[in-house]
Design brief:
The protein is an alpha+beta fold. The protein has nine helices and six strands. The protein is globular. Bound molecules: zinc ion. The site of zinc ion (ZN) has 6 residues, from helix 4, strand 6 and helix 6.
Length: about 200
């Protein structure tokens, strides 16, 4: 088994590319630039997406269920937590993110959770834990942090496949280039900026 705390960026890129290709090769090989249909890709893999309030304080944005289990969820109507049965392969997205669909956070959370499913099953299966995406990981341990960072990296590789980003990048010019590209890929401007910087395009 590889060291889960470190996976080469190239390996993560490869996993993302294969996942996208499996769904539709034209997504990354075609000349048309379109945003990655991350929710459809998740469902095409046999996973199910559930939109629920996870915590009252909104601190957990997404959670991936690796084993059939009861998961505590916040019921906004009764203002109480309930244990809800969730099947293995369910990705729970915090319903608060539905209100801000356009800012890229919902899509990024979906991609991050899919990343956990793709690379962290060995870590969580049978542990009774779920992989949760917290708004802030500052209180987590170092291992948690590196696992979360990996999921962020693979999430970004999934939403912003390098070959497609490059193709799009060289087609646009002008001062609002980054903003335009962010809109094209339906990600936040910050996510796009990080991606371009990582690959020294800006
Ligand atoms: Zn996570």
């Amino acid at each position: 088994m590889s060291d889960l705390r470190y996976m080469r960026p190239e390996l993560l890129e490869g996993i993302a590319r294969n996942t996208l290709k499996q769904y539709d090769p034209m997504l990354i090989m075609g000349s048309e630039i379109r945003s990655i249909p991350i929710e459809d890709i998740i469902e095409s893999l046999g996973l199910s997406l559930e939109y629920q309030f996870i915590r009252k304080n909104g601190r957990i944005l997404g959670e991936t269920v690796f084993d059939d289990d009861y998961v505590p969820l916040y019921n906004a109507a009764s203002n109480e937590y309930e244990l809800v049965f969730m099947e293995r392969g369910t990705i729970i997205i915090d319903a608060s993110l539905l209100r801000c669909r356009s800012d890229g956070r919902l899509r990024f959370t979906c991609a991050h959770e899919l990343a956990h499913w793709l690379i962290h099953q060995e870590l969580y299966c049978g542990s009774g834990d779920t992989a949760a995406m917290l708004k802030s990981v500052s209180k987590s341990s170092d291992v948690d942090k590196s696992i979360e960072r990996q999921a962020d990296m693979l999430g970004s590789d999934l939403l912003l496949p390098l070959c497609l980003v490059k193709k799009a990048f060289y087609r646009v010019t002008g001062a609002d280039r980054i903003e335009y590209l962010a809109q094209q890929f339906e990600v936040s401007k910050k996510a796009m900026e990080i991606r371009l910087r990582e690959h020294r395009l800006i």
